[in-house]
Design a protein that fits this description.
Low-confidence stretches: 160-165, 171-178
Largest sheet: 8 strands, parallel, barrel
Keywords: Coiled coil
Helix content: 25-40%
Distance between the termini: 125 Å
Structural class: alpha/beta
Oligomer: single chain
Mean pLDDT: 85
InterPro entries: FapA_N (IPR046866)
Pfam family, one: FapA_N
Number of strands: 38
Organism: Duganella levis
Strand order of the largest sheet: 23-24-27-29-31-30-28-25
Protein name: DUF342 domain-containing protein
Length: 596
């Protein structure tokens, strides 16, 4: 029988003046409303022992309940039946009357209370000798369902903030074991658990009250870069599509797998500890004091008070570097804010800083907008305003330079020591000069002998005979032979000097070419060395600083040694500028040998 049909049948019994004797009220509620103990699969449901007629005399014993918004109250008190006289004249005196739970349920049904009677409470009140007002029926509030949610199905999602164990067995209390988990490709990360509908409620009249519908979620809305939602036989999962680092957007809750670690919490002893990272890193918070971040291609959008160590890529600091350090082995360093009391070192890269104060800076190319009381070294150094700095570079360009309080302003132009070429150049120049002089002496002697009258006459006749300008008679030929015999010794001397000149000229050419090659080697070895000082705004010194090896050896000096090298008493070198005003545009000419 359907629930509406059963409800109609029960109502018909009660409204026809009957009631159910031995009624199982819980079974009735389960059959009509699905509330109460589960009856399972049953062919027939036993609700009561019998259907009996509701005596009108007893019906008068049941009063109207007090019905409120969500509950009903009833006052139970001792009752008496009035004295009655039977038709045969028998008098039945006044006597106590007792309410019946089955009659009570039938009467309440007809008075609109068809759900929620507390049978145990009603029975107890009926059995009590004292008058009592109780709440005997209440609404059943609908039971909310369960919203859809996700559960973690991969242990790789969990960070480990336990202290890091070192390879030697010691514990590093400054670092966490695994702050940024790395995820493999095709790993199930989250599983969607579907929503569960709630249970309906019922008011006293048996009217159904629906629960609020549970909330659903769309798993693909949680999929960020490197993840996607996939449906399998056992449910819907969020799966990684690439290998990388886990990133969760706190605002959108999107989960991404990226090739770089993105952090919003900052680096401190509380949040991350020291970081040893395998890949790129982007931090939106601050790096606190004494915290170390090691990785590659590091970007920090907050302030840095600790130490950045990069194996390569570009280190970008969007704000300030204060009492910290940045070291990049194979890449550039860009600092958009102020660097103060810090060490910045790019082994094989460029450094760009907006403003630097009390810093030690070393790199291949160094560009600083404003520098104050800094020690700076690089192959190329470009500075707009420098105050109280010690600067060294192969190619130095400073717009304005001057001292700061008691700190002097000094610029060193790094000039490679190429004196090893000078001795060979000097020897070659001496040999070239000696051959040039010997050749000149030979030519002078040839000219002297050739100018003798008999020799000049013979040479002139011999030249005309060779060109057939002159044809001699036999008598003239005899005369020429006499002249030749007379100047034979002079002619031999001319031939000897000509041979000496030819040999000397060949040696002179070979040595000159070798000299030119050695000079070019010296120029190439010396490289560029220049200084452009556009304006001195106070006492400024510019000197050359000779160095033997590559400038990398100077740039890799520890900060303490570098400061000592640039701030110590200069040795060697040449003073190029020492004035409180003016400018300088100096270029090294390595073709010139220093004068002793």
């Amino acid at each position: 029988m359907s629930k509406p049909a059963l409800t109609a049948a029960v109502t018909h019994v009660f409204q026809s003046g009957g009631y159910f004797a031995g009624l199982d009220y819980a079974a009735l509620m389960q059959a009509l409303y699905g509330v109460g103990p589960d009856l399972g699969e049953v062919q027939a449901l036993r609700l009561a022992d019998a259907v009996q007629v509701f005596d009108g005399v007893r019906l008068a014993l049941y009063k109207n309940p007090k019905i409120s918004l969500s509950y009903a109250e009833y006052t139970f008190q001792p009752l008496f039946l009035d004295e009655i006289t039977l038709p045969d004249g028998t008098v039945i005196p006044e006597r106590p009357a007792y309410l019946d739970i089955d009659e009570f349920i039938a009467d309440m049904w007809n008075k609109g209370i068809r759900f929620g009677i507390d049978v145990a409470a009603v029975k107890a009140a009926m059995a009590s000798p004292k008058a009592d007002r109780i709440t005997f029926a209440t609404d059943l509030e609908p039971e909310d369902g369960k919203d859809a949610f996700v559960v973690e199905v991969s242990s790789d999602l969990h960070r480990s903030d336990a202290p890091k164990a070192r390879a030697d067995g010691r514990i590093d209390l400054q670092s966490f074991q695994n702050r940024f988990p790395q995820i493999k490709a095709e790993v199930r990360l989250l599983k969607k658990e579907p929503s569960v509908p709630g249970l309906p409620g019922f008011d006293l009249a048996g009217r159904r009250t629906e629960p609020a519908p549970p909330k659903d979620l769309t798993l693909r809305f949680l999929a960020g870069e490197g993840t996607e939602a996939k449906t399998f036989d056992d449910g819907e999962y969020l799966v990684s599509t690439r290998e990388g680092f886990l990133s969760v957007d706190a605002k959108s809750n999107r989960i991404s797998i990226t090739d770089k670690i993105i952090s919003l919490e900052g680096v401190s002893g509380r949040t991350t500890g020291n970081l040893q990272l395998a890949g790129a890193y982007e931090e939106y918070g601050d790096v606190q004091e004494q915290r170390d971040v090691t990785g590659s291609d590091i970007t920090v959008h907050g302030n840095v008070y600790g130490n950045i160590h990069s194996r390569g890529g570009t280190v970008v600091l969007d704000k300030n570097l204060v009492s910290g350090s940045v070291h990049n082995v194979a890449g550039n360093i860009n600092i958009a804010g102020v660097a103060s009391n810090s060490v910045i070192h790019a082994v094989n890269g460029a450094i760009t800083i907006q403003r630097a104060e009390n810093c030690v800076i070393s790199g291949v190319n160094v560009t600083v907008e404003e520098a104050s009381n800094c020690e700076i070294i690089g192959d190329v150094v470009l500075i707009s305003v420098a105050e109280g700095c010690a600067i060294a570079g192969r190619n130095v360009e400073v717009e304005s330079a001057g001292p700061r309080r008691r700190t002097e302003m000094i610029i060193y132009v790094l000039v490679k020591d190429v004196t090893q070429f000078d001795q060979e150049i000097a020897e070659l120049e001496a040999r070239v000069a000696a051959f040039a002089q010997a050749n000149a002496d030979s030519q002078q002697e040839i000219d002297r002998i050739s100018a003798l009258p008999d020799v000049r006459r013979y040479l002139a006749l011999a030249a005309k005979l060779r060109t057939q300008e002159l044809v001699l008679t036999p008598e003239q030929g005899q005369f020429l032979r006499k002249i030749a015999t007379a100047v034979a010794e002079e002619i031999k001397a001319i031939q000897k000097h000509k041979l000496d000149w030819q040999v000397g000229q060949t040696q002179h050419t070979l040595l000159s070419e070798r000299l030119a090659r050695v000079i070019e080697q010296k120029v190439e070895a010396a490289g560029i060395a220049r200084c452009g000082l556009h304006m001195a705004s106070g006492e400024t010194l510019v000197r050359t600083m000779p160095f033997v090896a590559d400038t990398a050896a100077l740039r890799q000096l520890p900060p303490k040694d570098l400061k000592q090298r640039l701030r110590g008493t200069p040795t060697g070198g040449q003073l190029l500028f020492a004035d409180s005003a003016g400018s300088l545009d100096w270029h090294l000419n390595p073709r010139l040998r220093p004068t002793p």
